[in-house]
Amino acid sequence: MGCSASLPERSSNQLGRGNSENGGGQDAKNLRVKLVLLGDSGVGKSCIVLRFVRGQFDPTSKVTVGASFLSQTIALQDSTTVKFEIWDTAGQERYASLAPLYYRGAAVAVVVYDITSLESFNKAQYWVKELQKHGSSDIVLALVGNKADLHEQREVPIQDGIEYAEKNGMFFIETSAKTADNINELFEEIAKRLPRPSTN
Amino acid sequence: MAGFCFSLPHNVEPMRDSYGFALRPQHAQSYRQYASIYKEEEGERADKWRRFLEQTVKSSQSCSSEGKLEEISKAKDSDIKEETSSGSLSEGNDFSIRKSCEGTEIEEETSAERVSEGRDLSLEKSCEGTKVEGETGAELVSEGNDLSGRKSFKGTEIGEQTNLERQREADAETKEGKEGTVPARVSEGNDSIGKKSVSDGSTASSSEKEVHYLEERKARKVQTWGEIRPSLAAVEKLMRNHVKKAKKIEVEQTNGKYDNLPSIEESEHLEVVSEDIVGEKVCTKEMLDNSINDAREGNALEDNDSPEFHSHLKELETLVQGGVPKDLRGEVWQAFVGVKTRRVESYYEDLLAQESDSGERKEQDDSSGALGKWRKQIEKDISRTFPGHPALDENGRNSLRRLLIAYARHNPSVGYCQAMNFFAGLLLLLMPEENAFWALVGIIDDYFEGYYTEQMVESQVDQLVFEELLRERFPKLVNHLDYLGVQVAWITGPWFLSIFVNMIPWESVLRVWDVLLFEGNRVMLFRTALALMDLYGPALVTTKDAGDATTLLQSLAGSTFDSSQLVFTACVSFLAVSEARLEELREKHRPSVLVVVEERSKKGRIWKDSKGLASKLHSFKHDPGSLVEEMKTNEGDGMENAGDKSQLKSHSSNLDELLHSLNVDSEVDSLPDLQEQVVWLKVELCRMLEEKRSTIIRAEELETALMEMVKQDNRRELSARVEQLEREVAELQEALADKKLQETAMLQVLIRVEQEQKVTEDARRRAEQDLAAQKYVVHMLQEKYDKAMASINEMEKRVLMAESMLEATLQYESGQSKALSPRGDRIPSPRVEIPPPKSRLLNFGLGWRERNKGKPNNEEERRESQCNERSESRTL
């Protein structure tokens, strides 16, 4: 049953990936990756993206309905460029039913939680499981504890994040969109971990 | 409510539009450009609407009782005055009317208007002003109920008042007696509205009256209901058909309430019914009235103004497509959604009261339940709804919170869904709180049924439908997007879910909402999205990758400032997209969505990973206890108050709900049983078949896309080839042109050469002629020369002869002289004199001959000829 259930999923994944690879001029020097941000409502997904793409922080940002898109290109030291096509999804639980639309075919998934909310950390674990089940098999997963500037209100010990990420083969980092701490590092690290297309 | 009024443009900070919404910096420029256009359009449509309303009011007079004609037109006049006073809110208007009409007569006038806009034409005639007075009074007072004051009020006065109001509809006479008390309340209520809109109870402007009616001030906190201005009665009437339909559904469901229909309307109506036994009667009465009305409308409307009615509706549609004037919008929208028809007396306050009750007691154990979850989410989202909007101050946020929580309580199958915060916020900007609540109820329960529920089924279905429509209308665009790997739903999903709020500029959002609310369904969503694709498709097909395409579409949509173009494109170009067609497509796509949803929720139940259903079950399990508890405490109160039956009744409805939940529970408990597995396998099979089918379809799509690509490729190759050939041709042509040039040059040279040749030929011929002439001359000269020579020879011979003769003579003479020497002196002298001429002549002849020997012929000839001539002439 599980097998039969996952079969069509996989095929649709491949379709999705096939499509996304169709579209781009993928070469070894200029990568184009689809990245999706998932996580509980209000953990700061949109803020992370806005900080990364526009370098801004708006403490009174709007609720994301459905999803929103932004893209940003970064250059790495080995003179490759990576264009991130970022889908920032809505956080409310019921929007999870629309999430597959966005994470299907994504090369990177960034699961965000709020270090001041244990609940959001639990939610993050739900997302990790969901992605392991339904995401692409070679998806790069990152676990991000946001709002690191609010360390006095911390509910999730950094060790918990590290351990959970390690157990699931994820990359872990704590960030603060407010202070811009580790935001660029997050994306640079992701870029480094991307599987490079064979050069031919 | 006071916080929620349009801030005037000049109060607005630079980066906000005239509605007070934040403007993206990159759009500031284009907004400024369009602001003047908006203003102009606004002026035009204000005129059009005014004319339309005057006209419809006139025609509606014909169907209302004759006696009121004058009054209505009077009211109309005052209304027009109001309209000219810019931006004033409806409530303010009501207030000013009411305030100014202190006398009972004028109160009768306003109430008469109410009646004319009222639901029941037949009743209207029988119930004159006073009775309707009762209605407004009752309404206001009941609205005036405060959360805290409710319990004490409820049992006695309110219950009565509501009854009174209802009874009034059924029976005019009974009202008369109570009339005395009512007007006082009316004026109080009015005052409180007025103050609320002015200062929201701030001490500075509160008058003595406020001190007098301290109780009412409490009430003001929730005082939230405002009537639509009378002039829009016509619009409301026109829209009645739409709303009636919705109402009928509700009524049906109410009728079936004992059949345990698991609908939200049911619980709503149960509560309504439970309020009072009389209430129930009234409710049924109302139903009857409605059905009578329907029938009557069939007659009355068709008989009286059927052609007019339709022409008015048509005209209204055109007007709506042109946009609703700013200051009418709030009320017109209410008329469209049928706020007044939907409204159930004191329902909203009850919901809020429940909240404040439970807020105190259930805070802790409720937090894990669904309602607690929603409450938390709402709390998170309040400050993230139109952040920084001037109207969203403390009061505004409180209104928003109350509204959303009340809705969550009203319809637990939706509860709270992100996006609703924006809708509620928008509605609150345009109308009083309770009106906004009913409008939200209309939109979410009716227009967007199944959209914002836990599984969001209809939303997903609509995306599939939209994709099919798009594929139908713009195959090339979709092919291109397929090729780039862009799924349309990524972008349009958020458009639909937010009904374009935050997706396109505000003016456009409002214009789309105008039409959407008028039409009473989601057709406008599709039309608008198609129009956007129509407008921006050409730009989209030039994009090279998924990211660019998405960014472009997002930003282009965000800059759709030409709201009129958008709405007209939507309504004209995509007129064929009708509700019937959409429904057909929805039917087609729904099963596939349901299968996926089913699968998801199954997994959730089995693995308990997804908290979605698990938490639902949790809340079901939790609710019974808390509900029973609540019921007990309420029962205690109920003993004291006669009207608390309503509470009991409402709990009976909760119990019904509970029963459902228990049913669901048992269903879940028996999950691993065989039948379930069979069903599950069947579903699985269906799903796989569906998957297979969709995969096949997808494969076909891809194939066609591939074909298209190949074709495009071929085309590209061919075009490249053609280009190359063309280039060659061009080169050749150039060469040809060169050659031609050369040729002409050559020709010219040739011509010149020919001419020269001719010239030389001529010259030659002339020369030849000359030569011939000369030859002839030479010949002649030769002849002459020969002759001359011959004559010279002759002459020489003669000379020789003469010489020899001379010698002989000389010898003879010398011989003779020797012989005759003495005599010879005299004779020789004359003889010596004679010889010199002869020798001179001889010398000349010899010398000339010698001289001529070394010289050229010509010269010789010439000279010779000359000499000859001379000599000849001499010889001759």
TrEMBL record, chain A:
Region (Disordered): 1-26
Highest taxon of the lineage: Eukaryota
Biased composition (Polar residues): 9-20
Pfam families found in the cross-reference section: Ras
InterPro entries named among the record's database cross-references: P-loop_NTPase, Small_GTP-bd, Small_GTPase
Entry GO MF terms: GTP binding; GTPase activity
Swiss-Prot/TrEMBL keywords: Nucleotide-binding
Record has Nucleotide-binding as a keyword: yes
Protein name: Uncharacterized protein
Organism of origin: Acacia crassicarpa
UniProtKB/TrEMBL annotation, chain B:
Sorted UniProt keywords: Coiled coil
Coiled coil: 708-798
SUPFAM superfamilies xref list: Ypt/Rab-GAP domain of gyp1p (SSF47923)
Domain Rab-GAP TBC as annotated: residue spans: 323-520
Sample GO molecular function, one term: GTPase activator activity
Domain of life: Eukaryota
InterPro entries named in the record: Rab-GAP-TBC_dom, Rab-GAP_TBC_sf, Rab_GAP_TBC_domain
Cited Pfam families: RabGAP-TBC
Compositionally biased spans, kind Basic and acidic residues: 67-84, 111-134, 163-179, 848-876
SMART domains: TBC
Residues covered by region (Disordered): 57-212, 813-876
Name by which UniProt lists this protein: Rab-GAP TBC domain-containing protein
Protein source organism: Acacia crassicarpa (northern wattle)
Lineage of source species: Eukaryota, Viridiplantae, Streptophyta, Embryophyta, Tracheophyta
